Amino acid sequence: MMPNPWFTTSHFVMLGLQLAFAIAHSGGAALRPWAETHIGPRLYRILFALVSLPLAVILITYFFNHRYDGLQLWQVQGIPGVKAVVWVLSAISFLFLYPATFNLLEIAAIQKPQVHLYETGIIRITRHPQMVGQVIWCLAHTLWLGTTFTLVTSIGLVLHHLFGVWHGDRRLSNRYGEAFTAVKQRTSIIPFLAILDGRQSLQGHEFLRPAYLGVAIFIFLLWWSHPLLIVGTSRIAW
């Protein structure tokens, strides 16, 4: 009896890698108040990056190398217009995944890293832009690739980010108390819901910032380098 091609080892390796990343990333975020008190915010940020970034690189590389593993559930790559839709959705996803509300100098620990209570820019659209961006990215890539490996990867990523919604709100509530409760009441998790029901209104000038231009440049560079990334990662045999 032929083995089911769905049960390739890579599916379970990817889930294991995602679990390791989730534990390191969310666990590191949970430890932030204690760590900043004992070792300072800059050293905490550096250690957090030294743990999270290598795991992220491993995840991305493994995904590139095994994206066609398992069963092919559907094949839409030859349908006119699908590729353009996938690229547009991917570009939109990165606008949410890397919102300009974050201070890049703090991320790099050049400035003292701090926890901010934002309610401007993309936060007016959704309180959890990274979750929204990840869902859009997963939808686009699962549509394009159509394999069980990609589907399993997407489910794992979405579940991690849904947990991040609860975990992030909990950490902000613990830090800011009633101030965060007020922000929570004026914003929404579902994109544009707070705008549609009148709790928020878009302010166009808040998006006219260099950081948003940086995100746009990053998207263009990612589009340009995408074939090179696939070739480069394929040389790493896993």
Account of the protein in words:
By secondary structure, this protein is mainly alpha-helical. It is 67% helix and 0% strand. The chain contains 10 helices and no strands. Helix 6 (129-145) runs antiparallel to helix 7. The chain is globular. The two termini are 27 Å apart.
User: How helix-rich are the residues, as a percent range?
Assistant: 55-70%
- Number of helical segments with 4 or more residues: 10
Sheet having the most strands: none
Residue share in β-strands: under 5%
Sheet/helix structural class: mainly alpha
Sketch the topology as an H/E string, one letter per element: HHHHHHHHHH
- Mean pLDDT score: 87
Alpha carbon gyration radius: 19 Å
Shape: globular
Low-confidence stretches: none
- Give the terminus-to-terminus CA distance: 27 Å
Instruction: Please report the total strand number as a whole number.
Output: 0
Break the fold down into its secondary structure elements and pairings.
Layout: H1 9-30, H2 32-39, H3 41-66, H4 82-97, H5 104-107, H6 129-145, H7 148-176, H8 178-186, H9 193-196, H10 210-234
Helix pairs in contact: 1-3, 1-7, 2-3, 3-10, 4-6, 4-10, 6-7, 7-8
Question: Key features?
Answer:
238 residues, 10 helices, globular
What's the quick description here?
The protein is mostly helical. The protein has helices at residues 9-30, 32-39, 41-66, 82-97, 104-107, 129-145, 148-176, 178-186, 193-196, 210-234. Helix content is 67%, strand content 0%.
